[in-house]
Amino acid sequence: MRRQAIGAAALAAALLTGCATGGEKAKPLRINQDPFPSTYQRYPGAATLIRGVTILDGEGGRIEGGEIVLADGKVQAVGTGLAAPSGAVVIDGAGKYVTAGIIDVHSHLGDYPSPSVEAHQDGNEATGPARPEVWAEHSVWPQDPGFSRALTNGGVTALQILPGSANLFGGRSVTVKNVPARTVQGMKFPGAPYGLKMACGENPKRVYGSKGTMPATRMGNIAVTRQTWTNAQKYKRKWDAYEEDGGEMPDRDLAMDTLRGVLAGDILVHNHCYRADEMAVMIDLSKEAGYKIGTFHHAVESYKVADLLAREGICSAMWADWYGFKMEAYDAVRENVPLVHQAGACAIVHSDDPNGIQRLNQEAAKALAAGRRMGLNIAEETAWTWLSANPAKALGIFEQTGSLKPGKNADVVLWNGNPFSNYSRPERVWIDGALMYDANNPRLRPVSDFELGQPGEGDVK
Amino acid sequence: MCALLSATPAAAQTIAITGGTVALGDGSEPIPGGTVVIRDGRVVAAGNVPAPGGAEVIDATGKWVTPGLVAGFSRLGLLDVDAVDAANDVTSEGPFSAALDIAPAVNPNAQPVAINRADGVTRAVVAPAVGKSIFAGQGALIDTGADLDPVTRPRLFQFVELGEQGAEEAGGSRAAAHVLLRNALREASELGRFGSPVASGGQEQRPGVPENPTDPKLLTPQAQRSQDVLLTRFDAAALVPVLRGRQLLMVHAERATDILQVLALRREFPNLKLVIVGADEGWTVAERLAASSVPVIASALSDLPGGFESLAATQSNIGRMRAAGVNVAIGTINDDDSRMAFRGRHYAGNLVGLGKVPGATGLSWGEALAMVTSRPAEAVGLGGEIGSLRPGRRGDVVVWSGDPLENTSAAELILIDGVRQPLATRQTKLRDRYRDLKQDVLPQAYRR
Question: Residues of the signal sequence (chain B) (predicted)?
Fold first, then answer.
């Protein structure tokens, strides 16, 4: 998926050579697809055994009175009657739960950080309806205090930070580990593919319609989107030919680079889309353009077309009970998540909110309870797939995380009770096997630079 | 409440809800196997009491029974959809501020009312939001009943912004906001001299509820005003009851110093009956809040430094204030307050869970329930009327499938003023319409 990188100087030299040789075609050069590479390295962690604990493994499995062994950054073993490796920290998990870490597919931590002041409004490049050239990671402020709340109250171990929805093409997303770092590169999830944020509906047409420019209507949204993909196809043909045959390097367009990455299947599509009818239009549009929609976000009406979404293999990222803040959220129902799940489609509980991300487990619980009330008998361990396995799949990181299978990253939460209860909280959170939060140890509570020296520094939050 | 649902006339009738776990909402712990008796729309007894003979008995065995939830601070009933301007009456950019009375804008047919009712919210403190002044106008207490008579107490309080938002409305500075406030009260004071004298000894008006929102005497040419006035006559007249302590002054303030400035107002204006809303940094001045006896309607789970006025925000805020003796309740200011008041019970449950986190301060279960029932009622001076199942309170009762502070529980029976309420909403109807997507003999549009 990642193409071999070359340095800028080498590229310039090669171009000059290409011009000088005349008749003979120059060999094609590869563009660096990863110019802001992850510098994340896992922190050291002690070998750990949690015993006698209820385990929800994140992909549908449940073990009562089980054990889990973490070492060398990985889940080593999950089962019952497991012995502690020599020298391991042993934690008694009686009455507690262990789950795969929660993964939020929709966050604006860092690009709409706290404090929410004008100088921090970095999520929407609302200067043109198609801005696939912008990358959310270039807006992310690693000192957003919200990351720590998502860790300590939410048990969130990884998250996708997206551009906003003012634009039809909002730009690239970035998937990060919820580990404090000085730079965004220090948080980037190694090996995670990029995402492209797209948007349907009210937001783009309102933002640009109010400026007297296209799109001002839903049909305008679709027209601009289709035309942009048509341009991207042309760009892709040109570059594909160049990469095949060499010759003169075509002009590089950062916007089109992103869309070409989508058409090549390297970049995953995250499409903000509330209404069922618009989802159906976007599905046809994606087929015409030649890409696959990975996930519909804020998919408030997925329950109306859950069969279609199951057939197309598209995930829905949903809230439990948000409704009515705008027209396209007017038909929200509390059973959306379980109805989508029941139809055999991929269901995800997401936040889009620095408060909601602290309680995604409770949001899943509300959805689960609403489903059960209407007769959909979904197990707790199955519902946890909405928080771990399914978001990991939607982000293209399921091989590394999203469930507690041996060999996977030890992204693990120990809850002090049933995590579907309002009365439970994370007691400890491990990321890649490193203990990043321990409720019993005030030293293991991250404090952002912004909060240092302020009222409430280091307080429980 | 005047209209009765045809199938369930409840007034002039005795209802006994028996066998459930009864929580009174006054801070006490729940009572297993309790009974709640409602007669003529009011609670007459609750707890370990017998069901009177002849009562309509509702068996709540295995269920939980509580007073209806009270939204401590909301904008419920003021809109259908937030982003649809024509259907949103929260804010006015018009010429008036303090004179605005939100009562005529409340629409009990708006979906958010039904959706919150179905989740056990039976009363709501409803405030307008500021437009072009620090004064938003006069808020009300409403019920969420399925009828066209929603307002329980109009003109219950005047709402004013005195934090970051107040500074912005006043021209960009807290100093400006405080001068505006003092000037407005000065203008009210001057105009008030022409009004009716405060009733003393004789016929008491209900506390906090001026019978006459705008004393007509203040609007006549005889009520002379100075030349150098800023407020319209209506706005100045509307502040006369505030100045006299006949109407609550509800102030939004988050920062510690803003809270202290609000408390200090009573040195200049001793009759003010203050309520503070928000108070993210309240725990840092909890002792002084407690000493003032000023009630606080706080945001339960606010724990981010969303602005520079909330740097010390923590979920322990309410627990710490309560432990210090502050009269505190849960509200949801600027937290989807037009739609999501039903979150209050989840927030309360979280404060119970918070108690298990080392270093944090949470609440007992009984206190947590009180935060969304009796405490908000008491904060607006109506603890004798609503918010608990103590005798004499209005018959607002909810029967829950389980512990109401748990997200897995749902309301199964709702009484408002003793009248049984519908549980169906647009949401439940949409769910039922689309629960089966298989093609039928007619499109989904025919299913209802």
Answer: none
Fold of B13-68+388-435: Urease, subunit C; domain 1 (2.30.40)
User: What's the whole-model pTM score?
Assistant: 0.95
Cα A148 from Cα B69, distance rounded (Å): 32
CB < 8 Å to B304, chain A = 114, 145-146, 149, 354-355, 461
Mean pLDDT by 10 residues, chain A (461 residues): 42 43 79 96 98 98 98 98 95 98 98 98 98 98 98 98 98 98 98 98 98 98 98 98 96 98 98 98 98 98 98 98 98 98 98 98 98 98 98 98 98 98 98 98 97 96 96
* Domain coordinates in residue numbering, chain B: 13-68+388-435, 69-193+231-386
B69-193+231-386 matches B13-68+388-435 in CATH topology: no
Nearest-neighbour CA in chain B from A179: distance (Å): 18
Q: State the average pLDDT for chain A.
A: 95
Phi and psi at residue A92, to the nearest 5°: -80, 120
A388 CA: distance to closest CA in chain B (Å) = 20
Q: What is the pLDDT of residue A6?
A: 42
Using the Cβ of A365 and the Cβ atoms of chain B, whether some distance falls under 8 Å is answered with yes
Q: Vertex B127, ends B121 and B129: CA angle to 5°?
A: 130
CA-to-CA distance for B317 and B298, rounded, in angstroms?
Answer: 8
**What is the rounded distance in angstroms from the CA atom of residue B387 to the CA atom of residue B396?**
8
**pLDDT score for A22:** 54
CB contact under 8 A, A327 and B315: no
Angle at the Cα of A27 (from A25 to A28), degrees rounded to 5?
Answer: 115
Tell me the fold of B69-193+231-386.
Answer: TIM Barrel (3.20.20)
Of A159, A165, A387, give the one whose Cα is nearest residue A271. A165
Closest chain B C-alpha to A81 CA, distance in angstroms: 29
B111 touching chain A per CB within 8 A: yes
From B335, which residue of chain A is nearest by alpha-carbon distance? A355
Contact assignment for A454 to B409 by CB distance below 8 Å: no
Q: Note the helical H segments in B296-425.
A: 317-323, 343-354, 365-371, 374-379
- Classify residue B321 by its DSSP letter: H
Interface subset of B 15-74, CB within 8 angstroms of A: none
Neighbours of A214 (CB within 10 A): 16
Residues 6+ apart with CB under 8 A from A146: A109, A110, A113, A114, A354, A357, B304
Check if A80 contacts B (Cβ < 8 Å). Answer: no
Distance (Å, whole) CA B112 – CA B77: 7
Q: Which of residues 167-206 of A touch B (CB under 8 A)?
A: 202
